[in-house]
Amino acid sequence: MTAYFFNDTAALTGRTLRHVTRSMDTIITTAITPVAMMLMFVYVFGGAIDTGSVSYVNYMLPGILLMTIASGISYTAYRLFTDVKSGIFERFQSMPIARSGVLWAHVVTSLVANLIALVLVVGVAVLMGFRSGAGVSAWLAVTGILLLFTLALTWLAVIPGLSASSVEGAGAFAYPLIFLPFVSSAFVPTKTMPGPVRWFAEHQPVTSIVNTIRNLFAQQPVGDDIWTALAWCVGILVVAYIFAMAAYRRKIA
């Protein structure tokens, strides 16, 4: 049974990946907004923000990477919504394939597409002056956290992808996620924020993830932030997966 699941998922993933590679503009579009934000903040606002001895592009890159992921998963919801409305799900249900393989194909495609977009953003950041002395293990840790965050948000995207009534509704859920980094430590230190805003910024998931990635890049101790970041990612993943599978079962019932 396991072998059938992996074989079916691989075949279905190939199908969704072909859709992405034939329309690379979706990946480029995913990266455009974060890159534009990075250019604006670094070259327009960067000089007015005190980040100590850390260059501003180094300081803000972790938040930009999370914005890239949030932007990218809206396309996951869109692709899934398109499949649902086209009737391809009903066709798959009549075939002897693993039912959950259809969802996992979209999830794996999301991971691949977002990884490409992240590489593009990091490449632009390097051209803008981003530098890191982090070793291989630190880069692997950063990659792992970003992939886990992508996986969590992708399963979150599955829910509107299955249940939205319009294509606009399928992608609209990502907008709050894109702007969540603005109320975190992504662009300015939280100590500069007024009381209630500072409390929210310090206790929402983006801040702990940003702080962890930033410290890994800077070869600084990550402290408890890494455990908080992992707890947020795993918690969102588990809850989103449960609700996504419930939505899927209702859809195919």
From TrEMBL:
Localization terms from the record: Cell membrane; Membrane
Main location: membrane
Keywords: Antibiotic resistance, Cell membrane, Membrane, Transmembrane, Transmembrane helix, Transport
Topology in the lipid bilayer: Multi-pass membrane protein
Domain ABC transmembrane type-2, first and last residues per copy: 25-251
Residues spanning the membrane: 27-49, 61-81, 102-130, 136-158, 170-188, 226-248
Family: Belongs to the ABC-2 integral membrane protein family.
Protein name stated in the entry: Transport permease protein
Source organism: Streptomyces mordarskii
Phylogenetic classification of the source organism: Bacteria, Bacillati, Actinomycetota, Actinomycetes, Kitasatosporales
